[in-house]
Structures are given as structure tokens and as C-alpha cells.
Amino acid sequence: MLSIFYVATLSPCTAPEHLAVKLAATHLRRRATQACQWKTGAFNVCYRVQFHDETPEVIVRFSSLGRTIFRAEKVANEVAVLRYLRKHTSIPVPEVYGSGKTWTGPYIVLTYIHGTPLASILKDPKVEGQPVLNPHISQRGLRRAYQEVAQLLLELSKPEFPRIGALAEEPDGEFGVSRKPFTFNINELSTSANVPPCVLPDSNRNDAATDEADCRGKFVARCLFSKVVERIQFHEGAFQLYCDDFRPSNILVDIENIRIAAAMDWEFTYVAPAEFSYVAPWWLLLQSPEDWESDLTEFLTRYTPRFHLFLDALRAAESDMVSTGRLQESQRLSPRMENSLDTQLFWVCLAARYSSMFDDIYWTFIDEVYHGKFTSLEDRLQYLSQEERTKLDTIYHFKVKQAEDGTIDPHYSLDDTMEL
């Protein structure tokens, strides 16, 4: 955090600090005096704003250009989620004072909440960069942290919805599911390729395949994965809220009172299949899936002991919430979660959410469980339909031609991107 505040001046009037002061004053109807750049994350730039009467400070958060194409949708999604969570759950989240759009793009004005990221407390102090779980952390300390976070997960899983999608606030102040889900994976695909989701099923111009064998393997894996999903007996019932970016780095801890102060960054939250909530959390070692070892079996060796510790903490959190009337017996997650590694549902859900890791996950953990011991790719062709086999014979030549063309399909100009 920055401890020094810079006085926002009127010239130039387009300075971000000045804009943050103006927006805070507009939405809170108080005279804001100072602002500083407080934090720059993966998707946002935040300014901390002070007021002349020493009333609580706020954060004005601008959505970063270039980190997501759909900045307006991202902000609208998070505003709806934050307001829903404050109204219908006990999860501590910032209050939304307002949102809108300026020459910089979409923004949101939030409560400033002081706290230390939980990941900073749990991380290995010897490792630079992205946090990695301290291998020497005490079991007792880690279990307590897991139990506190487990209560948030349980609270998040309680609301039920009739369909998959994004939350939207209705004119009467209630909430419905009326838009497509805004997921981390779709954001990454669309942003890196400058491609809108509406054309993704038909637009695959890339150099993802290195050779014919690689291309055939990737195509077969995706065909077989769709058949695996059809065989899984999914939960019959309502859908639940799920946040792709829920992790210790986005959970603030009040060190003085030893409690969770707030859970932040809810833009990639949507109503999802209940199975997403039923599988083991990916963040137990703090690292994002993209930062795991290239050999996923090595990751699993480190992950499994922490997962068993988390399960113990989850059961304790469930029992505490049941005893105080905050959770029903039927809402426990642990009975479903405890077998998610053995059944490979953990990996199925992860493969569905992280396309960049799909092939490694599928061939390492999923294929053999559902189709028997792997001998050759040709052996797997028996599970493909005739239509899929026909496509397999032509797709590599199609991809080679695309790569040889060396062209990029334009979708959004810079001006178009600024408007999103």
C-alpha cells in the first residue's frame, strides 16, 4: 500500500488522481481532497481517496485497458455480485457507492477496507513474485486459515438459482440470471486474441498445433472429453454462485482482531454448475493453475496433504455453522468434495475452466479413467463418431493453411475497445 497521498490538482484535469477525486465526490456527495494510486492488479488500477472531513476513505477502481476486452461488462458484473452478496449473504465485501464510465473507461467506487492479503500471511517469504505456500507453516495456523476461508465458501454456495449465467439487478432491487456468464477463461481467450465470444466457436485462427500428431491429439482429446462429460452424473437441482478468482490473495485479514475483513475482486463470479463448488479448491497452495509444475503429478503430490487438511477444516466450519443455524445439513460441501480427486471430477471441472491447461489435464488424469489404459492415439479413434473422424482427417491441413497465411482476423479496433 502507499502511505503517502498526493494532492490532486486541477491541472491537468485529466490526471487520474483528479478524476478519482471528482468521481468520489460525485457519488458520495462529499468534498474529496486527495487521491493516490493505491494498487495496480491484473485487471484494475485503484486510487485511494480522502475526504476533507476525515470520513471513511473510498477506492475508485478503473478497469485496465488491454487486460480485458469487455470492461463495461466486467464492472457491471461485479457491481451486481457485490450488491447481491451484501444483501443475501454474510460474506464481508466492499459497499458499492457508484459506477459508471469516463474517458478512461468503466469505473467503480467502493469502500476502502484496510487489511493484509491472506496470501501474504501464508506465503513462503523466500520466494519472490507470485505467492507460494510456506512449506514450513504450522498445521495449526494453516488449518485455522483454511477454516475461515471455508466459511466463506459455504456461505457462497448457499444461494440457489434456476439457470447458469451472470447476475443482474432488476428494477425492483432483486436479482436474476439474465446474461451469459463472465468467466476468467472467456476473458483470457477474448483478450489475448482480440476476439469476441460470439465468434469463438467458429473462429480458431491460431498456431496452437505444432505438428500433425499434436493437432490430432488435441482434437481427439476434445472429442473424448465431451463424451466424458456426458457420462458424469451431475447434481440434479439448482445452480450455485462460483468465483473463478476466489483465492487467498483476494481475501483481506484484519490482523489486529484476527478475522477476515473482506473478500475482494468478484468480477469473474457467475451462477455455475454445482459441481464447481463440490470439488477441491484449486488455491490451497496459493498458486494459480497456470503457475503449477509442468508435471501435474508433482503438483498433486504436494497438493494432496493440504487438501486433507482443508477437508478437516471444512468439516469443522460446517459443524459450527450447522450448530448455530447458519447452515443446513444438506448444504454441507465436504461429503461431495472428499472424493473429487479420486473420481477425477476435480480435474474435469478444472479442464473445463482452464483451456490453456486442457490437454495436460486430460491426458494425465482423465483419459485412462474413462477409456482404459492408453496404448496409442489410433486406439482412441474407436470412441469417435464418423463425423468426428472425418473432421480429424481434414483439420490439420486446415490449420497448416491458416498458419501459412500469417494473417490476423481483425475484430476490435482501439476505438472499439475503448467503448467496451
TrEMBL record:
Superkingdom: Eukaryota
Designated name of the protein: Serine/threonine protein kinase
Gene Ontology molecular function, alphabetical: protein serine/threonine kinase activity
Database matches in Pfam families: APH
Alphabetically ordered keywords of this record: Kinase, Serine/threonine-protein kinase, Transferase
All copies of domain Aminoglycoside phosphotransferase, residue ranges: 49-276
